[in-house]
Amino acid sequence: MLSSKLAGIGKYLPSNVVTNQDLTAYMETSDEWIVERTGIKERRYAHRTNETTTTMAVEAAKIAIERAGTTAAEIDFIVFATLSPDYYFPGCGVLVQRAMGMKEIGALDIRNQCSGFVYALSVADQFIKTGMYKNILVIGSEKHSFGLDFSTRGRNVSVIFGDGAGAVVLQPATSDGQGILSTHLHSDGEAAEILAMYNPGTHANHWGEYANFDAAEIGQMFMSHNMIDSAQNFPFMDGPSVFKKAIVKFPEVILEALHNNGYTPSDLNMLIPHQANLRIAQFVQQKLGLRDDQVYNNIMQYGNTTAASVPIALCEAYENNLIKEDDLVCLAAFGSGFTWASALIKW
């Protein structure tokens, strides 16, 4: 069976830098308050109208495709991970296919939030292994800034997130023992609602309960003025509960990847964790006994870019020459759902 390698990688970050101090104009907060809880100093926000989840993805994809030594015309499948698509439907995959003038190839959208890119990488890896495709574009891209509650009421969530995109091109590996060694995917929906965006959604349309409502009234339950007035259309997060779950599952899934391939944490050259919270990453590093040079964090500059955070961090580490040929690299993520995942790569 074939194995797959990350043949090219690219990232895109908007030019608009938003500091913690900038946010004090909209909410009661401070640089000290944000840094203490998250480690974040600043983040990037996309242009309100000129940049979208798709346009950022395209910019990252152009770099990844060029570095892979291929062209957009040779891409034969797209896997796109995001929780902030341009439209409720269709997904962003087809918009990338259109924007880059690709052939009429398949495009798959992944909705696994913070774990989205690692899930997408795992899906693409299976297609390469079976020989079905030879050049797969895998993307994580997010435009959070258009849908956050910029008020004191929403600060616990809003100060965390930023915008950006990362992409890789997966191709069959040319050397034995090179590329993706294994991927590991998990979920537990028991506490799905403690990190979620409830509206708009179809959960309100319980036909038995609302059997006497007419069609117009049912439609208003999808999105109504009351939802907007009461801030029900913004993300909700029980931060402490998420933290407690993350610091258990993050190390578990990293160790799973290492042990399944006969490695220990000391063998790792680089761990790229999802950039959820610097405090979580520091806890995981301590738990696994890793040195500072074995872990890459950039949440301080970019905030949490959800599905984009792993490829952005991976790309930045690569560009800074922190990842070299034959290095052992682990990608890991934990997020809404809950879902968590890891991928172990021989670079």
Short description:
With 347 residues, this protein is of the alpha/beta class. The protein has helices at 20-23, 31-38, 53-67, 92-99, 116-129, 155-158, 215-220, 225-229, 239-260, 278-288, 299-302, 309-319; strands at 4-12, 16-19, 42-45, 77-81, 106-110, 136-142, 164-172, 179-187, 195-196, 236-237, 270-273, 328-335, 339-346.
Structure in words:
- The protein is α/β, with parallel strands linked by helices and 347 residues long.
- The protein has three domains: 4-172, Peroxisomal Thiolase, Chain A, domain 1 (3-Layer(aba) Sandwich), CATH 3.40.47.10; 179-193 and 236-346, 3-Layer(aba) Sandwich (Peroxisomal Thiolase, Chain A, domain 1), CATH 3.40.47.10; 198-229, no CATH class.
- The protein has twelve helices and 13 strands.
- The protein has helices at residues 20-23, 31-38, 53-67, 92-99, 116-129, 155-158, 215-220, 225-229, 239-260, 278-288, 299-302, 309-319, and strands at 4-12, 16-19, 42-45, 77-81, 106-110, 136-142, 164-172, 179-187, 195-196, 236-237, 270-273, 328-335, 339-346.
- The strands form four sheets. A five-stranded mixed β-sheet has the order 1-7-6-4-5, sandwiched between helices. A four-stranded mixed β-sheet has the order 8-13-12-11, with helices on both faces. Strands 2-3 form a two-stranded antiparallel sheet.
- The longest helix is centred in the last third of the chain and has 22 residues, at 239-260.
- The chain is globular, with a radius of gyration of 20 Å.
- The two termini are 19 Å apart.
Number of strands: 13
Order of helices and strands: EEHHEHEHEHEHEEEHHEHEHHHEE
Overall tally of structural domains: 3
Helix vs. strand class: alpha/beta
Largest sheet: 5 strands, mixed
Structural shape: globular
Q: Can you identify the CATH class of the largest domain?
A: Alpha Beta
CATH homologous superfamily (4th level) name of the largest domain: Thiolase/Chalcone synthase
Cα gyration radius (Å): 20 Å
Count of alpha and pi helical runs:
12
